[in-house]
Write a structure and sequence with these properties.
The structure is a single chain. With 325 residues, the protein is mainly beta. It contains one helix and 29 strands.
Length: 325
């Protein structure tokens, strides 16, 4: 944070320094340095010609700016989003609009805020942040939660954005930690491996993650990335048998995927492997009819494969029905 003795200047043996407010969060927005007071009571904006100037004279002449916040509590983060500055507290968020101290104004939204300052990231879809009940995205309208499918509440998050994917190292209410990735292109969440980065950042054309003492650059080559997904039975508990599995997929050049089934009586059974790369294609997987009270489908692959739809054709006592996933 900035202290009161910052920016010393020297004149003929006499030391002069500008007195500045102390800030707990800062951000650069519209050519000004913005900061929040430790108490959360005020938001400051520097003069445009000197980002370290917060003097009373500049504020009186409308070169710099200070505004009280409406919501109770400390500021937990800033995000500069287009022409707006988003100010977060734990239970509220404010949006500052305008182009100078003469017309700055802040609209406050209560009930939704950010609890993890390092979760705030500006993405191609909007500002993503962690609130008490999940991850939200703000794109200029009312913020919307998009993490329902995770079915878990988190208390902390450290995040980064590589231009397409939102990476976040999270901690849940029981203290368990994991890495989640949200693909903004397809709107899908993924759980990553057990490596727990402590920070993320972009530099030039690279995206980097770091732990306690090591820095890693994430590559862009996805051709050798191995992945797996498992689908469990849904619906009633009657005896069923799978006849066919239909998938609508898009496979990148050099990628592949394999389909397995399991009825709990001997492990996974392999059915087919697909490697064709011809745009979005429908693949049919014939499965020999076996009655069971439960079944699972597993798909493993290498490289980039996008699954748009999966349909199970199952039989039950002379009836046939489809289950769309």
């Amino acid at each position: 944070s900035f202290g009161p003795n910052a920016s010393p200047r020297y004149y003929a043996g006499v030391t002069l320094s500008k007195k500045m407010p102390s800030f707990n969060h800062i951000v650069f927005h519209q050519g000004r340095l913005w900061g929040s007071s430790p108490s959360g009571r005020y938001i400051y904006a520097s003069a445009s010609d000197d980002i370290f100037s917060f003097s009373y004279e500049d504020m009186t002449n409308k070169f710099a700016w200070r505004m009280p916040t409406d919501a109770v509590g400390r500021v937990t983060g800033f995000s500069s989003y287009n022409d707006e500055l988003v100010v977060f507290k734990e239970d509220a968020m404010g949006v500052i609009t305008g182009y100078g101290p003469k017309n700055y104004q802040m609209n406050t939204l209560s009930g939704i805020g950010c609890i993890a300052p390092k979760s705030c990231q500006v993405t191609s879809k909007g500002v993503i942040f962690l609130a008490y009940d999940g991850f939200y995205i703000y794109n200029g309208s009312y913020p919307k939660m998009f993490s329902h499918s995770l079915n878990r509440k988190y208390t902390d998050a450290v995040s980064g954005f590589d231009g397409r994917k939102y990476y976040t190292s999270v901690t849940d209410r029981e203290g368990n930690r994991e890495v989640l990735v949200y693909d903004t292109l397809y709107g899908l969440w993924h759980r990553e491996d057990e490596f727990m980065p402590k920070g993320y950042f972009r530099f030039r054309d690279g995206f980097y993650v770091c732990d306690s003492n090591t820095l890693y650059k994430l590559g862009t080559d996805q051709s050798n990335v191995l992945w797996s997904m498992t689908l469990a039975q849904r619906g009633d508990l009657d005896l069923k048998g799978i006849n066919e599995i239909w998938l609508r997929c898009e496979i990148d050049e050099g990628a592949e995927f394999t389909v397995y089934t399991d009825i709990g009586k001997g492990g996974w059974r392999k059915h087919a492997t697909f490697t064709e790369a011809d745009g979005v294609t429908v693949y049919r997987v014939p499965v020999r009819f076996i009655n069971s009270n439960n079944y699972r489908v597993k798909i493993t692959g290498r490289g980039k494969v996008v699954i748009y739809a999966l349909e199970l054709i199952a039989s039950e006592g002379g009836r046939r029905h489809k289950e769309r996933l």
